[in-house]
Specification:
single chain, alpha/beta, N-(1-d-carboxylethyl)-l-norvaline Dehydrogenase, domain 2, 2-enoyl-CoA Hydratase, Chain A, domain 1, 4 domains, 3-stranded mixed β-sheet, 20 strands
């Protein structure tokens, strides 16, 4: 492409490669030509990372670059191992899915979604253009793949691939699986392995790898064989496709949705153990691996002074990974900067007078321990620091309140304790708003129910672009009880303008809660009124989120932050709003759009957001609305149908419409 072009063109020419779908896969490969200037590379690196929210990786101009070269090797290696180990496609998908930090679609389902023809095209390209690759033979298509290609069984686009969806008895859809020996579709077989059972109590994926490779069953054999092949292959690709091992890990995490890259997995298993796995398969490790161990480095990565380092092959020493100064990596600072810890949170010192409160509960649910930790963080920040960030770097910010605890209290009819628990939640949210230091919420991923309420009570929200935020309490048969119903009423009141039809404004906020709306991005949350224009901001690159939140906390503190005055000027519309809502819920029930219990919940919410059955519009305090909200929440917890909804959510993770 550079050939015959001017010197100036060649200097400013560069290849780029996005992964599909680009919204969700963060890899942005930058491929310089022989004469591309460093200035152009630096610009693309920063532009990709800062403005597109991508993981920018500079790759060499080799077939399939970094991500696809390693990723396609992994899939083709599996294709050959399936027959060798006598595994079914369901078993492979079980072994290569969430248990090792990969997407739910794992291997074969992913190929169906992407399209078998796409995979074959890339594999053929590597086979034809990399004759010196030591794994060259692996890129040759197995017979069953060739048959599938001939039959046009390409996956979702042709209606069948490794899986096939059919309409079974009684009109129910059913998924069939391909038997790779007979190439005929059969009923799905549930896959289970004793080795996987051993990892069920291990929450962190990175801690599972040593257990998996020690398995005594077919799963253990699979992992030993699979990781041995992968470790050998990635080690041999340096310096062919890149000079730095961390770029391979970055590419696999950002391009294929892996939680951990190959070298991170190798570190988790142990470098020596990884070599032993390879030798057991008759594979010799790359010479630079032995050089690394001889130089005194026994890991590919290390953490020094809160920064991540990697083993640099050229200098034979641990070198700081470039570009991380714009990030704060909580994993790196948690131990050294810990200020307080309980079973629910870790409070870390981010430096410059700013604390961070990081949730550590399952799915970051908000229970008593998290609330106690949050209050402690506010105490510490008010006493010795200048600001507080509430943020974490888990998959999701928070899926809301601990409904298991609420369910147990409600079933045992411990209503006084439940009332105190809800009041504790409300009081903590109010402390977030009315503390003497600025509080910044940093939501990302799922930010539901209580997680959303927490963000709405912070002084500022620094949201990741991919934030799915909303008040979803209707799904479990209650109304938002941690200040969410109050806050939506207050925000409606703040948007009333002279000559507005105020009922229409209030109705929009009511429907946001009543329909359990969840924003599909942080930008959509502004339209819903969950985030506020002019106050809250969106960060495109999630890696920058904690650092950005910290800088805003520092900025607010430096501007002379003063404790806000509690609001007593919330305009509620009383009977005129209540009447409108009740007529609306009546007609919705009559039209069979909602159930009788849906109507009951909606009417409770209507009572709160109308401010009760006041005879005329009135100005009330936030505490007045919080008391109404808590009373409505408690009364719904006495309803059998609400308990059924909570129980169903706890069992299945899905809402029940009863």
């Amino acid at each position: 492409m550079n050939e015959g072009r001017s010197e100036d063109f060649q200097k400013h020419f560069c290849g780029t490669h996005f992964f599909n779908p680009p919204r969700y896969l963060k890899l942005f490969e930058i491929i310089p030509g022989p004469k591309t200037s460093q200035e152009v590379l630096d610009f693309l690196n920063v532009y990709g990372e800062q403005y597109l929210g991508k993981t920018s990786v500079v790759a060499k101009d080799t077939p399939a670059f970094i991500g696809n070269r390693i990723g396609i090797f992994g899939i083709m290696s599996l294709f050959h191992q399936v027959n060798e180990l006598g595994l079914t496609i369901e078993e492979v998908d079980k072994l290569t899915g969430p248990v090792i930090g990969r997407p739910k679609s794992a291997t074969f389902r992913t190929v169906d979604v992407v399209g078998l023809d796409t995979l074959v095209h890339v594999a053929n390209g590597i086979y034809e253009n990399c004759p010196n690759d030591e794994a060259h033979g692996l890129f040759k298509l197995p017979d069953f793949i060739q048959t599938m290609m001939d039959n046009k069984w390409l996956g979702s686009k042709t209606g069948q691939g490794f899986y096939k969806k059919i309409t079974g008895d009684g009109g129910k859809s059913e998924i069939l699986s391909l038997d790779l020996n007979t190439l005929e579709y059969r009923k799905n077989k549930k896959a289970s392995f004793a080795t996987l059972e051993l990892t069920k109590t291990v929450d962190k994926v990175i801690d599972r790898f040593p257990i998996l490779v020690s398995g005594k069953d077919k799963a253990g054999d699979f992992y030993r064989k699979n990781f041995a092949a992968m470790f050998a292959y990635v080690a041999n690709r340096i310096p062919e496709i890149t000079d730095s091992l961390y770029k391979i890990d970055d590419a696999m995490k950002a391009g294929f949705g892996w939680e951990h890259g190959p070298f991170q997995i190798w570190d988790a298993i142990g470098v020596e153990k990884g070599i032993a796995l390879m030798k057991a398969e008759g594979i010799e490790p790359a010479t630079w691996i032995q050089d690394m161990l001889a130089s005194g480095s026994n890991t590919f990565y290390s953490v020094q002074n809160g920064a991540s380092y990697y083993y640099d092959i050229a200098s034979k020493q641990q070198t700081k990974i470039p570009g991380q100064d714009a990030f704060i990596i909580l994993d790196n600072i948690r131990k050294s900067n810990e200020v307080f810890k309980n079973s629910g949170v870790v409070v870390e010192d981010l430096g410059d007078g700013i604390l961070n409160c990081e949730f550590q509960s399952k799915m970051n649910t908000i229970g008593g321990d998290v609330l106690a930790g949050l209050n402690k963080a506010i105490d510490l920040a008010e006493k010795d620091f200048d600001g507080l960030v509430i943020g974490n770097q888990a998959a999701n910010f928070s899926v809301g309140a601990n409904i298991g605890m609420i369910f147990m209290m409600a079933v045992e009819q411990e209503y006084d304790e439940l009332n105190m628990a809800i009041k504790y939640f409300q009081d903590t949210m109010m402390r977030m708003r009315y503390s003497s230091i600025p509080t910044i919420s940093a939501p990302h991923g799922m930010t539901l129910g209580g997680g959303c309420e927490l963000s709405m009570h912070a002084d500022k929200v620094v949201a990741a672009a991919e934030t799915y935020i909303g008040l979803v309490e209707f799904g479990v048969g209650v109304i938002p009880g941690g200040g969410g119903s109050k806050e939506m009423t207050l925000r409606a009141s703040d948007t009333y303008h002279k000559n507005d039809v105020e009922l229409n404004v209030l109705q929009e906020y009511f429907l946001t809660i009543g329909m359990a709306k969840v924003a599909t991005s942080a930008y959509e949350a502004f339209d819903m009124g969950v985030l506020q224009k002019g106050k809250d901001i969106v960060v495109v690159n999630k890696d920058r989120q904690i650092a950005t939140a910290k800088s805003y906390a520092r900025l607010l503190a430096d501007q002379g932050y003063t404790k806000p005055i509690q609001r007593t000027d919330v305009k509620v519309l009383g009977k005129q709003a209540l009447g409108m809502f009740l007529v609306g819920t009546d007609s919705m029930e009559a039209g069979k759009y909602i159930s009788e219990h849906d109507k009951k919940i909606a009417n409770k919410l209507a009572y709160v957001m109308a401010g009760g059955d006041l005879s005329e519009p009135t100005f009330v305090s936030e505490q007045y609305l919080l008391d109404l909200e808590r009373e409505a929440f408690l009364s719904l917890c006495t309803e059998r149908k609400t308990l059924e909804r909570i129980q169903h959510m706890l069992k299945t993770g899905k809402p029940l419409r009863n």
